[in-house]
Specification:
300 residues, mainly alpha, 12 helices, 0% strand
Length: 300
């Protein structure tokens, strides 16, 4: 709506390493990345439970070889497939992209098969004694109020910035416009990172329990997370693409367009490789940035 970008975590690091990407575009990625890296710091400041990203962090698979293989597969797969769980699974499907829907189906299937084959829940110490579905916990009224306030406040701020830009109350270009855009992108990255913490995507054990759907520890809550995100994204993208002349801080309406076209073997192979890495360790790019930031800045 305001910056003309669709959220995609896997492309952030590539923006700083690919030699063909202009320096100015690299700078434009910094605020969102900074927001992701520092999002864990906002958890206690917003009044959320520290258990969302606990001190001491989450457990990883013990084998360093397995972690390295998972990282390599996730990296190569997300580059080959031009996206990951956020780029394809959320932003892509949110734009009703058939390409992203197919990639998501491929990496979900690959992730589940790999996790089951290599017993990722076992490697992460997830107990199989009790069925996860027998211990579903609903939000308390206090949690519902807190999360609801957070969501509504974010929506109001974003909408106010968009309206103010279109009414000429704030500059949409120049140094002041660029500064407002940078602050907005930082807040968007932090908002997204907090959402990953609240939804449990930052916990590899929870991801593994979701992928290993045949086990007693099966946890479908990440499916609910993606569904609730798409319930906002799909109508949101539709309204923005058809009712907004251009993003607030971007000069062209083409910023709303899908950047890649067509179903290619590279897309399918990339999805399969990404899913295999995801299934091996339960980690994908967005949550990895959040966890790395928590380790660097919060000692967790």
């Amino acid at each position: 709506l305001n910056c003309g970008k669709a959220v995609g975590a896997s492309g952030l690091f590539r923006a700083f390493t690919h030699k063909k990407i202009p320096f100015e575009e690299r700078l434009n990625h910094l605020p969102f990345l900074a927001g992701l890296f520092t999002s864990a710091k906002w958890i206690p400041l917003l009044g959320f439970s520290q258990q969302l990203i606990p001190v001491g962090g989450f457990g990883l698979v013990a084998s360093s070889t397995r972690r390295a293989a998972a990282g390599l597969l996730v990296g190569v797969g997300s580059v080959a497939g031009n996206g990951c769980t956020s780029g394809h699974g959320l932003s892509g499907i949110g734009r009703l992209s058939v390409r992203s829907l197919i990639n998501t189906c491929v990496f979900m299937a690959s992730g589940a098969i790999t996790a089951l084959m290599f017993d990722t829940t076992g490697a992460l110490g997830v107990s199989q004694r009790a069925r996860t579905l027998d211990s579903v916990r609903w939000l308390t009224s206090e949690e519902f109020s807190l999360f609801g306030t957070f969501l509504v406040t974010g929506a109001i701020i974003s909408g106010t910035i968009a309206l103010a830009g279109r009414k000429g109350l704030i500059p949409r270009s120049g140094q002041v416009g660029a500064a407002i855009r940078a602050v907005h992108e930082y807040a968007t990255g932090a908002f997204f990172g907090v959402g990953l913490c609240v939804g449990g995507m930052v916990n590899p054990a929870k991801v593994a329990a979701f992928l290993e759907f045949t086990k007693r520890s099966f946890d479908p809550s990440l499916m609910v997370l993606m569904a609730s995100a798409l319930a906002v994204l799909i109508p949101g993208f539709y309204v923005i693409k058809n009712g907004v002349e251009r993003p607030t801080f971007h000069p062209e309406k083409s910023a709303f367009a899908e950047p890649f076209k067509g179903i290619t073997p590279k897309l399918l192979v990339g999805g399969a490789l990404f899913g295999a890495g995801w299934g091996l360790a339960g980690v994908c790019p967005g949550p990895m940035y959040v966890n790395c930031g928590a380790s660097l800045f919060g000692g967790t």
